[in-house]
Amino acid sequence: MPNVGTSSVKRARLLRGMTQQDLAQKCANAGAPVDVSHLSRIERGIFTPRPRLRRVLAELLELDIEAFEATAGSAGNVA
User: Fold this and answer.
1) Which runs of E-coded beta strand occur in 2-78?
2) What is the CA radius of gyration of the chain?
3) How many whole angstroms separate alpha carbon 2 and alpha carbon 10?
4) What 3-state DSSP class applies to 27?
């Protein structure tokens, strides 16, 4: 699995042919609702998602959750 960075989230989403709205809906269906604006901020590195959303994003985008969580400590804001 690839290391996760903000561009990795966007890249993984685009590789799966999803819009931010698609991903937001899938997150909501998985029990981690998120606004499209928050997804945009996550992709740009402005916000770090909370643990449940990190887990759901990692699962939906097939990203390494450990690397995802490692980046969480470096960002100041949490979405």
Assistant:
1) none
2) 11
3) 13
4) helix
CA distance 7 to 25: 20
Cut 0.85: pTM above it: no
Reduce the DSSP state of residue 48 to 3 states and report it.
strand
Q: Which two tokens stand for residue 56?
A: 């759901």
Residues in Cβ contact with 53 at an 8 Å cutoff, skipping those fewer than 6 apart: 27, 32, 34, 79
Encode the chain (79 residues) as per-residue pLDDT tens digits: 444 555 788 999 999 999 999 999 999 999 999 999 999 999 888 888 899 999 999 999 999 887 665 555 554 454 4
- Write phi, then psi, for 48 (nearest 5 degrees): -110, 130
Taking the CA atoms of 15, 17, 20 and 26 in sequence, report the sign of the dihedral they define: negative
Place of tokens 């992709």: 43
